[in-house]
């Protein structure tokens, strides 16, 4: 179909082109398999209906799709659960039992007559909805009605994630960010099919979660932040709201209580937890490694059990992150015994342990996951923990740390690990990154945003965009083209070869084009982003 040009509108200070049809393959992260059919473009019309399988979680995805599309289109887009009907115009979201789609995959078919999205789970439908959204013109991101032809490109997509763990971390301890900011970050994760939000809730500069049995932690420990600002904390109701909002977007919250180091804020609230002879005072600087809870005091383990107990009860996800990084003042033997005891507390609560890779020397415990943030791929201690059963989340600081500057002149951020522009964020392979670690030990990828120098929502977005989508593509899209799921027969194998060019592979030159193409979407959504010189901006 020839692009229909309706002119352009000036929106949020940028020019948004109207009327051009998105290519089916322009999606981020790249779908596993894309088969365009240029004769099958679908025009979404004002009378379109969203039909959903009669299932509460699927219906919730249908309602979210409607909520995403209504503002810009101005269409009513009613959501119904009329079962068994083929899509007669409009969009159908169907739960199916097609085993090849896995726990999060989906199949999308766009024809002249309608749009059909199929998945085995509501999570799969949710990811498919994110794809659908990216296939509409960029103006779909506008929160007010836009005159546009809402055309979806014809063809089929089969898509499944490479890794089950696709995450980002927000440090709300160095600077506190309120619930609204966190919900907006969750929206950004959902857009790019990430499914984990790790919240770094405690550090030297602030304690950000109310603990009923130790109220001074938040009341006193939460009243500080880097630079001397007022800080803040989440009530348990706030935290539940974040968890529920994330869950509705098929994102699991992983809360972190950093132990035994990075605990100055807790010690200010409870000096009895500090090592004998030390007098904690509020800290608004950015040094690390000076604080720790007293590992020789039983009171410390009461504190840990109470805090993790309340957090476990508030957290439906299976993981508790116990930190473990940079406890420089605790002797190695003492540190290892401390971590092992905290691991037992976590498993006793029915949760699975995640810790920064410094916890590697501790004994293995069921399901234990290490979050590796090194910069040098040769790490025998981590490799040994993997041999003893640990799995890994990869956050290499020189590729995945969103607090690193893009370049020397980036106004905020660090540079101790690297300058990370988009190519550097994209240019590594999680499966082969670490020496002596087999590919199947890697559960996925996570991009942490530390916030010593990040103080506002705009600054969060400036550091996330455009690097977060690069990490999301590493976590979701195949490294090399995947064989057709039904390529058993010769015939399927042949047609598979014919369709070779439509199967995704990790490819910088293709990615940078697609990524730059998302800029009008970010502008329409009011997202502040960095105009990286790595990308061919439109
Ligand atoms: C190291 S990475 C830290 C954080 C800092 C970060 C700054 C890790 C587990 N610990 O405490 O915020 O560097 O880049």
TrEMBL record:
Belongs to the glycosyl hydrolase 20 family. It holds the Pfam family Glyco_hydro_20. Signal peptide: none annotated. This is beta-N-acetylhexosaminidase. It comes from Micromonospora maris. CDD domains: GH20_SpHex_like (cd06568). The active site is at 326 (proton donor). Residues 163-329, 333-478 form the Glycoside hydrolase family 20 catalytic domain. Residues 26-159 form the Beta-hexosaminidase bacterial type N-terminal domain. It comes from the Bacteria. Keywords: Glycosidase, Hydrolase. Gene3D superfamilies: Chitobiase/beta-hexosaminidase domain 2-like, Glycosidases.
């Amino acid at each position: 179909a020839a692009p229909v040009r309706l002119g352009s509108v000036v929106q949020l200070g940028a020019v948004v082109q109207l009327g051009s049809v998105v290519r089916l393959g322009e999606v981020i992260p790249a779908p596993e398999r894309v088969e365009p059919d240029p004769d099958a473009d679908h025009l979404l019309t004002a009378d379109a209906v969203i039909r959903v399988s009669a299932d509460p979680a699927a219906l919730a995805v249908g309602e979210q799709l409607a909520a995403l599309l209504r503002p810009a289109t101005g269409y009513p887009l009613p959501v119904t659960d009329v079962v068994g009907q083929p899509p007669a115009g409009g969009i159908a979201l169907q739960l199916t039992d097609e085993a090849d789609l896995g726990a999060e995959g989906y199949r999308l078919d766009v024809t002249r007559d309608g749009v059909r999205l199929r998945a085995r789970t509501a999570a799969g439908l949710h990811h498919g909805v994110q794809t659908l959204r990216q296939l509409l013109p960029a103006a779909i991101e506008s929160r007010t009605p836009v005159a546009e032809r809402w055309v979806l490109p014809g063809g089929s997509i089969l898509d499944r994630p490479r890794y089950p763990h696709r995450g980002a971390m927000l440090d709300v301890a160095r600077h506190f960010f309120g619930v609204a900011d966190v919900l907006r970050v969750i929206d950004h994760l959902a857009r790019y099919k990430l499914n984990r939000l790790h919240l770094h809730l405690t550090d030297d500069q602030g304690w950000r979660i109310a603990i009923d049995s130790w109220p001074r932690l938040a009341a006193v420990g939460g009243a500080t932040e880097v630079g001397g600002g007022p800080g803040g904390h989440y009530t348990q109701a706030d935290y539940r709201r974040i968890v529920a909002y994330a869950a509705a977007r098929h994102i699991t919250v992983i809360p972190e209580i950093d132990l035994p180091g990075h605990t100055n804020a807790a010690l200010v609230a409870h000096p009895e937890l500090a090592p004998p002879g030390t007098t904690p005072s509020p800290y608004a600087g950015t040094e690390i490694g000076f604080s720790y809870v007293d590992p020789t005091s039983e009171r410390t383990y009461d504190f840990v059990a109470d805090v993790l107990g309340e957090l476990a009860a508030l957290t439906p996800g299976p993981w508790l992150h116990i930190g473990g990084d940079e406890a420089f003042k605790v002797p190695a033997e003492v540190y290892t015994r401390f971590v092992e005891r905290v691991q037992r507390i976590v498993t006793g609560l029915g949760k699975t342990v995640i810790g920064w890779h410094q916890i590697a020397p501790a004994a293995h415990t069921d399901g234990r996951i290490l979050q590796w943030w090194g910069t040098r791929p040769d790490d025998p201690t981590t490799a040994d923990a993997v041999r003893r059963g640990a799995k890994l989340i990869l956050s290499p600081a020189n590729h995945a740390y969103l607090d690193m500057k893009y370049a020397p002149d980036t106004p905020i951020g660090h540079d101790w690990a690297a300058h990370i522009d988009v190519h550097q964020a994209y240019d590594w392979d999680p499966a082969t990154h670490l020496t002596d670690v087999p590919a199947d030990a890697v559960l996925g990828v996570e991009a942490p945003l530390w916030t010593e120098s990040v103080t506002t929502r705009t600054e969060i977005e400036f550091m996330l965009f455009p690097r977060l989508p690069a990490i999301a593509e590493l976590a979701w899209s195949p490294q090399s083209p995947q064989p057709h799921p039904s390529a058993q027969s010769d015939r399927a194998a042949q047609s598979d070869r014919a369709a070779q060019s439509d199967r995704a592979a990790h490819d910088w030159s293709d990615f940078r084009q697609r990524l730059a193409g998302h800029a009008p979407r970010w502008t329409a959504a009011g997202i502040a982003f960095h105009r990286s010189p790595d990308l061919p901006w439109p």
